[in-house]
Amino acid sequence: MTGTGAFPETRALADVSSRRGGDRISLRVIILERMEENYGMFVWPCSIILAEYVWQQRSRFSGKNVVELGAGTSLPGLVAAKIGADVVLTDDFHKHEVLENIRRICNLNKLDCKIVGLTWGEWDASLFELQPHIILGADVLYDSTDFDDLFATVAFLLQNSRECVFITTYHNRSGHHLIEFLMVKWGLKCLKLLDGFSFIPAYKASSLQGNIQLVEIAIEEK
Ligand SMILES: C[S@@+](CC[C@H](N)C(=O)[O-])C[C@H]1O[C@@H](n2cnc3c(N)ncnc32)[C@H](O)[C@@H]1O
């Protein structure tokens, strides 16, 4: 533990691993966290579940352009980078502390990801340069006042890069299925919907709580 003040900084190690034949293959990501009011400074359960999904689907990610929205401590994007994706990590343009933390985490992990301040619903030049094959977002659907801005950005990126898919994990805290309404509103369709606990290893599931879903979303072709 390092850092000064009310919110000490901690280093967390996040591992993903699988068995291939008789061998275990794995990778480790180092994360810097600070448990403070700023939601982007610590790892949320949705991020652990999305990172596990990226790892399990790693053949899809190798060599692909990946953009993570609302990346915070960026665990899913960092796993994607470690398995060979070309990754752009983004968070709110105004959250300098979060963006600086992402920079430090990339350095610690010796990863050369591009880091971009990208606020949902804002049309900066940097947004027009992004042509992802895959967009990631862990726990980016938590404040309903931001949903339309988030989906405006996601719909733009999906339109800008055909064949692109948005993979998001969200914590259904209200019990309402707002995401279905948003997909219809923004001309999107659901390709896959999974219970987040259906594919993670038991030792990870035991430390996580909540109703977490993973959904893959694409443009609804007319
Ligand atoms: C609940 S945190 C999730 C962080 C990380 N993805 C995770 O799961 O650990 C939500 C993230 O969205 C970012 N965020 C919130 N509002 C945003 C906005 N309007 N534009 C871009 N990012 C935003 C926050 O800074 C924060 O990093």
UniProtKB/TrEMBL annotation:
Keyword Transcription: no
GO cellular component, as recorded: cytoplasm; nucleus
Annotated InterPro entries: Methyltransf_16, SAM-dependent_MTases_sf
GO molecular function annotations of the record: methyltransferase activity
DNA repair is among the record's keywords: no
Domain of life: Eukaryota
UniProt record, GO biological process: methylation
Keywords from the named record: Methyltransferase, S-adenosyl-L-methionine, Transferase
Family note: Belongs to the methyltransferase superfamily. METTL23 family.
Protein name as catalogued: Methyltransferase-like protein 23
Organism this protein belongs to: Platanthera zijinensis
